[in-house]
Amino acid sequence: MECNMCGKLLLSQIRSLFLLTLALPCFAQLSPVAAEGETGITVVGTGIVEQKPTVVEMTGLVIGQGQLAGDAVTKYHGNRRRAEDAFKNLKIPGLVIQGDGMSLYSSLNASQMQAMMRGMAVNNTQSQELSVSETLKLRLTGVDKLSPEELLEIIVRIVDAGKDAGVVIGNDTTPMVPGTYNASKARNTMVAFKIQNVEDLKNKAYAKALEDARSQAEALAKLAGGKLGKVVAINTVDPNQKSSDSSSQMLAQYLAVLGMGGGQSEEQSSALLKAIPVSAVVRVTYALE
């Protein structure tokens, strides 16, 4: 009988400890106002600022190939000069061409590739084609002063000039294995539209977010029959953070649809020729008087 009573008491203690463990995270998430036993209102404000792209960036691949390394280098230098002259002859104001460094590599020839695709042994004694390549960055500034039609015309001129000079504009869509399909290379993104001074835009977005938070808090205070007091706590919110809060998840999904997820850098890019949004989210706690 005593053993049964001891067992029930032990089971009750274990159950209480388990419930306390589940409750601890909830207490840890209480706002400073709630922790001090005071009344308060916590809201999440969102601010969005949009700006037209100011920079257009494209990449072009210059390559020279040959059975001998010397031949590949010679062809590369010739193709490099021809490409640079082609872009400079366009005489487009604000267009700058920069190189990102050369790479030297060898690749299998056609017969070796066919043997590999059939599961046969590759004959490495056969000569492999050597390649020298360099990625050129084509950067055009001041595009916010152009109309979409004018900018599109300039982009077409750059692409056509590169094509005539043997430069591949955009990401490399060549499959790793000839005759195969690679979904990641199925689409050639040729142009990136960017905005600068993202930090200034971010600060403006924070100002809007604070206005939005105060507007919500004032409305809630009025409904509660109280008066909104001073700011007790304020925190920035990452829209992409994982949270069990359904409202935070909905906010993250909403911002992701708008293409505003992720951190900000000195420049922010988009594949679309349209105003680029910069967002800010804050969680603010106000005292309730």
UniProtKB/TrEMBL annotation:
The keyword Metal-binding does not apply. It holds the Pfam family SIMPL. It comes from the Bacteria. Keywords: Signal. GO terms for biological process: DNA damage response. Coiled coil: none annotated. Residues 1-28 form the signal peptide. The keyword Signal applies. This is DUF541 domain-containing protein. It comes from Gimesia benthica.
